Every structure is written in C-alpha cells, then in structure tokens.
Amino acid sequence: MEVELRGITKRFGAVVANSDVNLTIRPGEILGLLGENGAGKTTLMNILSGLYRADEGDILIDGETTQFNGPKGAITAGIGMVHQHFMLVPVFTVAENVVLGIEPTGAFDRLDIAAARRQVRSISAQYGLEVDPDAVIEEIPVGLQQRVEIIKVLFRSADVIVFDEPTAVLAPQEVTEFFGIIRSLRDAGKALVFITHKLHEVLEVADSISVLRAGQIVGEGDPKTATDAELAEMMVGRPVRFVVEKEHAKVGGPVMEVRGLTVVNERDEIAVDNVTFDVREGEVVGIAGVQGNGQTELVEALTGLRTPISGTVSYRGDDVTRASARQRHRRGIAHIPEDRQRSGVIGTFNIAENMVLDTYYDDRYSSGVSLRWPDIYESTAKIVNDFDVRTSSVFSLANHLSGGNQQKLVVARELSRDIKMIIASQPTRGVDVGSIEYIHQQIIKSRDDGDGVLIVSTELDEIMGLSDRILVMYRGRVVAEFEGHKASVQDIGLAMAGAGAAA
Amino acid sequence: MTTNEKIDGMTSELLKRAVVTRFDIEEIVVVPIFAVIIALFLGALTMLATGVDLATIGRSFASLLAGSVGSVNALSETLTAAAPLTLAGLGIALGFRAGLFNIGAEGQLLIGGMAAVVVGFAFEGLPFLIHLPLALIAGMLAGALWASIAGWLRAATGAHEVITTIMLNLISFRLVDYLLRNPPIQRPGRSDPISRSVLESAELPKLLDWMDVNLRVHAGILVTLAVVFFVYWLLFRTTIGFEFRAAGANPDAARYAGMRSGLIIVTVMAVAGALAGLAGANQVLGVLGRASPGFSAGIGFDAIAVALLGRGHPFGVLLAGLLFGALEAGGRQMQVGAGVSIDLITIIQALIVVFIAAPMLVRTLFPWAFEKKSGREGK
What is the 3-class SS of chain B, one letter each residue? Predict the structure, then answer.
C-alpha cells in the first residue's frame, strides 16, 4: 500500500504547522522523517493517522484520494502509529493489551483470550518479535513494551506504520534489536515512517530521508550519500557543530566527594549500591548507563531530594549528606532535572515565575515575605537574553515554549545563579539539535570557569562528547571508569549492558 | 547603537506584558455570565415542570431581583449573606491554588464560630476595641487549628484531605452539639442547646442602623473586603503565596526547587481554616449573637461553589460571593413574594456551578458569543 501526502497545509490559528507538504510512503521502504522539535513532524503524522484534518491538500492511498473520519478511519485504512509514549495498560498481559478495543469474542460475548494469545504468538513469530503473550506489561522491559505496541498495530492489520521517536526510550542494544525488527517489517512489504531527530539512526536504517523544518519539507536525502552535517544543516537551517569544542580540562581540588553511597527507591529496593566517586573543579564527570540503573536515585540523593541509607556526600569539604535541597541550592549546587515537564518547569507559570522558582526567597528578589516583581521581571529579561531563550515576553507561559526552549529556561535558571557545581540529568533529552549545541557549550563554559560538573545521560554520544571522565552505572553500581578521550563506544556499551568489563 | 543599548532595547521588549487575549476574557467574563443566564432559564423550566404558571414564574424572578438589589434593605441582606460565603470561599480557593481540596470549611466555620462565641461572652468589661478583635482572632485560630489537623494528617501520613476534612466536619457537628448542651457554654436556665449571648463589646457593629434599625448589614463586610485584598497580596505578592501556587501547579517542580511540601500543606490548610473560622466568627458576632446547632447553615459547602465560580481568584471569589449572597437574599423574598420554595435557589446555584465547571458546554450552547476556536483545543 502506497500513501501519498499531497500539498498538506495545517494551521492552528495564526500558526502554520504544516505548509504544502508532499511526502510519499512506499511499501517495502523505510522513510526517515527528520526534524527538530516543533518542526511539524507530529502534526503531519497526526493528520496521517486521522487525528487532525488538513486545511488543504489530500491524502492518497494507492493513488485514490481518501478522507479519514477520525483515527478509526485511518486504522481501517491500514495506517497504524506507534507513539513515543506507550499506550498500554500496565497490569494487563501482552495479549490483553493487544486485543484491547477489538477483543475476539466467543459465544455470549465471552472474551476469547485463547484466540488472542494464539494470534499474538503467530504475529510475534512471523516478524521475529519474541514476545510472550502472557507476560504482564509492567514486568517487561521498555524494549519489549515497544514490541507490544508494534504487535498491536500489526494485529489491526496495518500496512503503513508510523514510529514516533521510537528510540528515545531504548538502550543501545535495544536500538540495534529495534532496527532488526523494522528491517524485517520492511522486508515483509510494510511501508514504514521513522520519525526522529537523531541523524545517525536515520542514516543507518532509512531507505530515503525527508527533512522537515518550520512546517515545510526543506530537503530530501539519500542515506547512502548524505552526511550528518548536511542533514543537520537542513534541519536547523545553519551549519551545526557536532563535536563539543573544549580545551583540555584544568582540574582542581574535589568539589563533591561521594563515599559508599547507598540509596533505596520507593519500593525499598537498593537502587544505588555503595557508590564512591569524586567530582573535581573544572572537570565533567559523565555517568553512562541504561535508564533505570540507579541514576535517578543517585541524582536525587546528591541534590537532597532523597535521603541515602548509608554513605556520605561532601561538598567543598562539608558533609551535606542530610542537607535539604534548598540548603544545597544556596551553597551553589545547580540541578538540571531529568524530566523538565514533570519537575523542571511549571507549565502554567510564566517565564519570570519559572526563572525564580528556586531563588525567589533570595535577597535579590524579595524583602521579607514580599516579592519584588519588578526586579524579578528585569532580571529574567536579562537572563533570557543571555541564555538565548526564544520568547517574546517574560510574561509568556512556560507551556507555550518549545521543548528546547523550556530546557534552555531550566539551564538558564540553574547556571545564572552563583554556582560551584552542576548536576545535570539528561540535559538535552527531547531537545532540538540547535539547542543541544548551545546547552553543551554552556556546560563546558561552566567547567572552564572551574565548576565541577556531573552529567547523567543515557545518550552515549552526549556522555562521550562532554565528559573528561566516564563512570558506567549498572544495577546501582559503578561498574567501570574510563578516561573521556580514551573510551570507546564498544567498551562503554558493554559495561552498560553489565558485561562486567571493569577497566 | 551600542551593544549595551541594543540589549537594553531587547530587554524592554521582553518586559512588555502580553495582551489579554480574547480567549482569556471569554473564560473569565463571558462564560460565567452565560452560566448564570442558563441556570436562571433552567430554573424557570423547573418551575414550569412542577406546575407553576408563567405569571408566578415572572413574579418570582421579579421578587428575586427586588429582594437582592431592589432596595437598601435588599442590598443590606445581600451583603450580609455574601460576607461569610466570600470569607470561607477565599479559604477554599486558596486550597485549590495549592492543589488541596478542602471540604472542611463547614466544620472549620463551626469551630471558629464557637471559639468566637466563647470569647464573646466570657470577657466582661473589655473595651470594644480589644474585645471584638480578640473574638475574631479566636475564631480564626480555632478554625486554623481544626483545619491543620487535616493538613498535618496529609503531610505526615498521606491521608487524603477530602476524606479527613469530611470526617472532621462530622466530628465538629457533634462536638458543637455537645458543647451547646453543657456549661459553661450553654445559656443558664435553658435545657435546649443554645449558647450564652455574645456581649455587645464583641459584636460586629451594624453599619446602617442609623437609617433603619432593621438593616442587618454589619462591619463583617468591611472585614471581608480587607481579607480579599489580603489574600490577593498573599497569593501573588509574597514568597508564601508563590510556594502555595507552585505546589498546587506542579508539586514535583516545587519539591525540586527546594520547597517543603509538608510545611506548605499544613500552612495552606491553616490559612484556609482561619478564613473559614473568620466566616464563623462573622456569623456569630455580626448576625446571630449566639451559637445554636447547625448555625453554619451550609455556608461552608456553598463556599465550595463560590470558590469554583470565582475561579480560585480572590476578586473572582468576591464577585461570586456577592452573587450567591444576592441569590440567597432574593430567594427569601421570592418565597415570600411569589410563594416559590427557596429550594429553587439551591437548584439555580448548583446549575451555575455545573455550567462554570464545563466551559465547553457553554461554548457549544452559545457559539455566537465566542470566537471560533483556534488550534488551542486541538492540541
């Protein structure tokens, strides 16, 4: 089944999300759709999956103009979508999730779960997905959950499958497996769209590439000949530097010393297991690891959000193991949290309110309990300028900023304070290429000013680009340590997978 | 232009306030107005359905208007009813802002009222300037302490405030009954549950008794106005209010920013309780002069509707309190003038809240009053 989007235009009020977009999705082919956040990828795919209706333009299926009446229409037509955030019921089994909404039924409307299980097993075998139909969703890893989403789409007999940022949640090994899966889907004759902002993935797996910028297709590329740099320039609209340019680290004395730190999670399981390391002045320490290996709990313990059960954390010579988050802020520890939507910004607060979220009590912004808003607004406007947060007013709501700009807002808030130490968790997750470059520069600038920096990231590229020293966490322990410039992707990848390759 | 000037130019550009959009105006002004109109209309239909003839319906709406704003006495009644609704409504709105659903205003109001009555009759010979504030403060403190129990339970154990405040309400009803039946609060020589009377030095003075001794409006409405401004200041101009709002809008972000959620919860509940307690004190010191079982008369529950209608904003709550006060006062006139049960007012109030809570419904019913929806909802 071949799908063609012809002259698609979609407006939201005055904002043009898609403008005259032409795109052809062919069977037996993987189309890589590249674009920064806010470039209009999601809107375009929502039009394809029937969620929105285009203001202008047509969708042609095998050459015939088609109109979808909502998502159901698109599914009937054979277009399926695998969303970035899975839509699975955690306490249901794989088979139950797959059939949800179109359950096979026996006599008297009885749920025929045996038939469901059989069908799941056969789809799973056909495409080499290896999913147990009786496994409960919440007990299987993210990579498998994603396969369940794929089975769901296949179960609804989709011929066109759209993947929205599918690798964002996967570990490097899982990404490789995922590539194997979509290749086998392609070979089975499915038409596939792979949406991403990661260039090397598109180059590796796609058969053709389209680049979307500001709602328009700005270029097409052949993965055999295109380079990272060309594609990035198309996406951003200017040349982008990938390698973080930095001088050799001028390392000073320790800023933060962590000794035998052990932390438990909500379920009282040991999440961080006897971890010891230092972060010194003027160096970037990167913590690599697949998500869920204790990084979150480690950062929470270091920032005062979670009390460790044993071990100590000292900061510039003082024991801060039990200091509150506020006390640590005041002493100059900056924290860029891993999930900006959940814990970094308040969407319904304006930019100025977000900018002083952890400094509002400071003498600069308040006298006693009374906030001095004029000072806050003025200071925010300066910081917004300095850190290149793209907004028209400090009174705009944080919700109205793009993901990259929200992250810049968080970075600006944390780095504009008087700090000596940065703890950054996933500092560029879901951020566009242009903003990534900028955020990395700011972090390196802080390092060069003599701050200690701790970066926690599941993006190996990011860790390798920024870090002077790399620690790998696996099941709560630091299992390997590498010098930044000597480390190889293979070695780190193996350590992340728990191969026990202690260097 | 030097670089400095250029940056200053950009900075001042950033400091321009965003224009209030048509959407905001519609949400804040147009939706509530239409909600009231639909509610009145459906109220009329309800009367029709229960066999009231058209003439009586017309007469009852005329009485509603006359009884709420038609005379000095009507205005006086409206303000008298609006004061406690607004005060308790402010407390609940404060809770909404901080993400707490405080159902306990009724109980806090009773406990605060009882404390004000006790102080009001116990200190003979105190000058008015000391006795009245003392009684008001007693009401606030008692309400604050009572509400803090729910706040503390939430912060320390995670017990949900909806459950605990409902339980505290039930306890407070019986506690008040018990207190009213026993010395030293029970009026000497009476066997029914009624308290001693508040001394004149602790009464909220009547404002218009020089015109007509029957005009009931008292200084409580002035206290209410002052409190409206105080709550506005607290919410939007202080670090405490900033923490309340942050904790309500995104508790995780507030915690990450180093705010102490437990402390915030207890403080919010205490302030909300103080405001409800003040509403109770306002009733006993300004209107009733004594306490009797159930003197709260459902004000604490109506105040939830007031807070919702006021969109959690202090000035909105004031307007909503005035509207509900007017309905209350007009409803009594309606009963007298047209013989229609005051229950109808309760129906109309409930309908208003339903339509306020469902702005999309109002938009769909009156599409011509609103700008065509942009991408806002679609996203």
Answer: CCHHHHHHHHHHHHCCCCCCCHHHHHHHHHHHHHHHHHHHHHHHHHHHHCCCCHHHHHHHHHHHHHHHHCCHHHHHHHHHHHHHHHHHHHHHHHHHHCCCCCCCHHHHHHHHHHHHHHHHHHCCCCCHHHHHHHHHHHHHHHHHHHHHHHHHHHHHHCCCHHHHHHHHHHHHHHHHHHHHCCCCCECCCCCCCCECCCCHHHCCCECCCCCCCCCCCECHHHHHHHHHHHHHHHHHHEHHHHHHHHHHHCHHHHHHCCCCHHHHHHHHHHHHHHHHHHHHHHHHHHHHCCCCCCCCCCHHHHHHHHHHHCCCCHHHHHHHHHHHHHHHHHHHHHHHHHCCCCHHHHHHHHHHHHHHHCHHHHHHHCHHHCCCCCHHHHC
Contact residues, chain B, for A384 at CB < 8 Å: 14
> Is A379 buried (19+), middle (13-18) or exposed (0-12) by CB count in 10 A?
buried
Q: Do B375 and A361 touch (CB under 8 A)?
A: no
Q: Within chain B, which residues score under 50 in pLDDT?
A: 1, 373-379
Cβ partners under 8 Å of residue B218, min gap 6: B80, B203, B204, B205, B206, B207, B286, B287
Q: Which two tokens stand for residue A71?
A: 């998502």
Give CA separation, B33 vs A416, B75, B212, B271, B353, in Å: 45, 20, 34, 30, 12
- How is the beta sheet containing A318-319 ordered, strand by strand? A270-280, A254-264, A310-315, A318-319
Tokens describing residue A84:
């970035």
Contact A166, A172 (CB under 8 A): no
Instruction: Encode pLDDT of A371-416 as tens digits.
Output: 999 999 999 999 998 888 888 888 888 988 877 788 999 999 999 9
Percentage of the residues of chain A whose pLDDT score is greater than 70: 98
Which of A15, A370, A393 faces B17 most closely, judged by CB atoms? A393
Residues of B in contact with A53 (CB under 8 A): none
Q: Tell me, what's the pLDDT at B18?
A: 61
Interface of A with B in 367-406 (CB under 8 A): 369-371, 373, 377-378, 380-382, 384-385, 391-396
Facing B253 at nearest CB: one of A344, A378, A385: A344
Residue B59, Cβ neighbours under 10 Å: how many? 17
Chain A within 8 Å of B375 (Cβ-Cβ)?
yes
pLDDT tens for each residue of B178-206: 999 888 888 888 888 999 999 999 999 99
Q: Mind listing the pLDDT tens digit for each residue in A56-101? A: 888 898 888 888 888 888 888 889 888 877 889 989 999 999 888 8
Chain A interface test: which of B250, B260, B261, B263 (most A C-beta within 10 Å): B250
CB A334 within 8 A of CB A419: yes
**Probe site for chain B from A343, A405, A417 (most B CB atoms < 10 A):** A343
- Does the CB of B257 have a partner CB in chain A at under 8 Å? yes
Residue A47: its H or E element? helix A41-48
Give the mutation candidate from A338, A351, A360 for the B interface (greatest B CB count, under 10 A). A360
Q: In angstroms, rounded to a whole number, what is the distance separating the alpha carbons of residues A83 and A74?
A: 15
Nearest CA in chain A to B240: A369
A239, A233 contact by CB (below 8 A): yes
Residue among A189, A133, A181 at smallest CA distance from A158: A189
Partners of A303 on chain B (C-beta within 8 Å) are: 256
pLDDT in tens, A95-150: 999 888 877 777 777 878 888 888 889 988 888 888 888 999 988 888 888 899 99
Interface check for B3 against chain A (CB to CB < 8 A): the answer is no
